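Worked problem 6 (solution included).
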Amino acid sequence: TPALLPAKEARPLREITEDARLRHLGPVVVFPENATSNGRALLQLLPMFEDAANLDEKSNIHILAFKYPFQSFSPAYSVGSQMGHLFGLCCQVYNLLAVRALEQEETPRIKDSAVFCDAGNVAVDLDEAVKEKLLQLSRLRMTKLTAMDKRDFLAFYYKQAKKGRI
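Solution. The predicted structure is:
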């Protein structure tokens, strides 16, 4: 899977979580969409747990869904003028952020993945389990688009905008 971050700058998730735990840096937050969407559907999630280098058995997964309820102006910036977006935000009386959290008992556990699972237990596909739980929690649909598709669209959009076609 291609990434938005150059490989030389990336570190395995396991290394990041172990470092955070040892240095008491607090929780490590992973946004599996890897980009903001329009708040009406989810982008395809990145496969975070398919590589054993990303699995830290001592870590817990907490699934949260963030949603900006809006009528006509989305507070999630994606295209257009940054100043125009800031003006739109300031013209709204208020902006909402709805946060929903999945109960810990319902959350998939890293130790149930194929890497750590005992022979007698059924291994869990963590990426698929997280995806299913996030879809249920957020009450959104999953698109076929990825963060890479969004990046490519934004590059096209800004190229057209520079030519004066938008």
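Discussion: The mean pLDDT is 80.
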